[in-house]
Amino acid sequence: MSHEALLSVRDLRVAFGPVEAVRGLSFDVREREVFALVGESGAGKSLTARALLGMVPRGATTGGGVRLRGSADLAAERGRRITLVPQDALSALSPVHPVGDQLAAAVRSVRGLSRGRARALAVAALDRVGIPDAARRARAYPHEYSGGMRQRAVIAMATVNEPDVVVADEPTTALDEERREQVLRVLAEQREAVGAALVLVTHDLEVVREHADRVLVMYAGRAAELGPVRQVLGRPRAPYTAGLLASLPQDGPRLRRLPALPGSPPAPGALGPGCAFAPRCPLATGPCHDREPEARAVDDRLVACHHADDLSDPLREFA
Ligand code: SF4
């Protein structure tokens, strides 16, 4: 696998008025990898995903930026080289056009093919994601599809033009357990088939463990820990990652959402000068309340914690 950066995010800052919701985030997404963005609600991960797609309102990006193969015009690349699988499939599909027509229109707008050829590609794409009797179903409207089928149609839409990156924002939240697995499998297959990288925004650590190569754990608009999934989830070095893992149940049904750690994340705009996690962190010491930690390299990962070097197993602190 090439380690060349496909998407490059540098010191990204997104603010709404005085409230900074993404606070200096840097990471790369590599060719064909599955890169997970994980964190509690309000961590800024969906906003980061929107920034990757050039969907943040003009003026809200107050610093840094995103480049896709060197291009900073993400809005122009959206739908072509970078595509979205949103949480709510209905929002991605027009209710007034048959699904096949919508897919064919997406193909024509990007590739300029004939109507007949675009139609054939649309039906083939629906067939590939497991829509039964795809030629007939292509003529149906989104409301005639089940929830799982709609989400698969949206995956077909997001991959039909063979993009470089697919961004999936909580793609299975609205589905039941069985359909979640199905949709994630289809997403993984299609990503593989078109050779795209996948940015997977999720609350679900099990999904990260099963599907992602690398993970960025976000807290209060910043990176707490970034690195290979096996390292970060196998042996976390940031207390926040450790706290998330420690609150997973050891047995019983698999956890589908992040559990609540004691306390709650700070409201954006209500941050003090120190580490944003300090009020909830059992390892906090004096400097944690005074200065925000910078990310630094530990093994193959980056960890933003003043005590990253002296804590070999922060998980123990949450036992
Ligand atoms: S910097 Fe301090 S408060 Fe923040 S995570 Fe590390 S130990 Fe906890």
Q: What's the number of domains?
A: 2
What are the low-pLDDT stretches, counting only 5+ consecutive residues below 50?
A: 252-259
Average per-residue pLDDT, rounded, comes to 90
Distance between the termini: 37 Å
Quaternary structure state of the chains depicted: single chain
Give, in order, the helices and strands: EEEHEHEHHHHHEHEHEEHHHEE
The CATH superfamily name of the largest domain is P-loop containing nucleotide triphosphate hydrolases
Q: What overall form do the CA principal axes indicate?
A: elongated
Helical content (DSSP H or I, runs of 4+): 25-40%
Sheet-strand content, in percent, reads: 15-25%
**CATH first level of the largest domain:** Alpha Beta
Q: How are the strands of the biggest sheet laid out side by side?
A: 5-6-7-3-8-9-11-10
What can you see in these coordinates?
It is a single chain. It contains twelve helices and eleven strands. By secondary structure, it is an alpha/beta fold. It folds into two domains: 5-212, P-loop containing nucleotide triphosphate hydrolases (Rossmann fold); 216-318, no CATH class. Helix 7 (147-159) runs parallel beside helix 8. It is elongated, with a radius of gyration of 20 Å. The two termini are 37 Å apart. 45% of the residues are buried. Residues 252-259 have low confidence and may be disordered. Bound molecules: iron/sulfur cluster. Residues 239-240, 275, 277-278, 281, 283-284, 288, 293, 305-307 line the site of iron/sulfur cluster.
